[in-house]
Amino acid sequence: MLAELSYSRALQTPVTGGTPQTGNVPVPPAPADEATIMAGWEGGISAPRVSVMCFAFNHGDYIRMALDGFLMQRTRFAFEIVVHDDASTDGTREIIEEYAARYPNIIRPILQDVNQYSQHIWPITFCMPVMRGDIIAYCEGDDYWIKADKLARQVALFDANPTATVCFHPAIEFDEHSGDHTIICRYAETVQKISAEAVIGLRGASIPSPSLAFRRMDSSVEAMLESYRTAPIMDFFLQAYMALLGETLYYEDTACVYRRNAKGSWTSQQKEVEAELRYQREMLSAIDVFHASTRHLPNVDTLYIPLYHYFKQYVMAPERPHQRLSNFYRGLGFISHMKRGRVLKLVRHDVMDKVARRARVGHKGEAA
What sequence ranges are listed for the domain Glycosyltransferase 2-like (predicted)? Predict the structure, then answer.
């Protein structure tokens, strides 16, 4: 039986800015030709075991590396690469078309003429109906894979653990601004389970997005897509939904690179105060709706952990007390399905904890 990593243990592991690394950041090699990649496959491409799901938008500087990382995979099963371009204007589409022409049996492009994200439509909406694999491996176009056995290891873990719905591993986090790179999300040196509370409580940061693989659950696809259709980000809700459906597996190999502050990325956009406030408001509403959609699943109340995190951030963002009080009432207004009384209970617990800590500091000062 695998050991399970708890939320409290996961909190002790860096999910960003982790262990500094020296030397160059690894990059994938130039890919082999299509016939060579497919030569060792057992079974045809018409029934791939894995679908690689890649989202791209203005990733012209990065998309080749992402595609090379997919094509470097050495497996005994067939895999396909479904790459969605959301009407890029920087040459990303042309690079995808070039690779699709070279690997027509492996790469299946979805090319938009009109940007869908601006219309609040997630790329996964277009990818899920056409992907044929029973395992989905996710990686955005500005991240990439660096180990040739990544897919093979994840599929083997899914096969050995039939109740698992998620599998992931640590990542190298590469900061585009500073050039630094660190190891993140290295929870253990062996294969372990990670609790749903840890996945959800860390608000999507517990799993580096290019490390994520999940089991396709056909009966839940529509419900999954609907549960976070209005959310400001996808990764957290995708991870949370799949973690609520079954077990989450972790293995120790650092098999991908996650770019922080890449051009046009989400991390590069969350800078302005108003943008952060808007994000907090949208997350409060989205978690509330997501909870209503998933309330029949075990462990769903772990969603109060991220809900309270964003509520507290939203309330404490202004400097002036009267503005914080105003945000307090506004924040509660964004919660219509989950229990506001439970949020207020968390507020009271937080306040009492701070009072107790201050009292302990005061007693120590008097004793000195």
Answer: 51-182
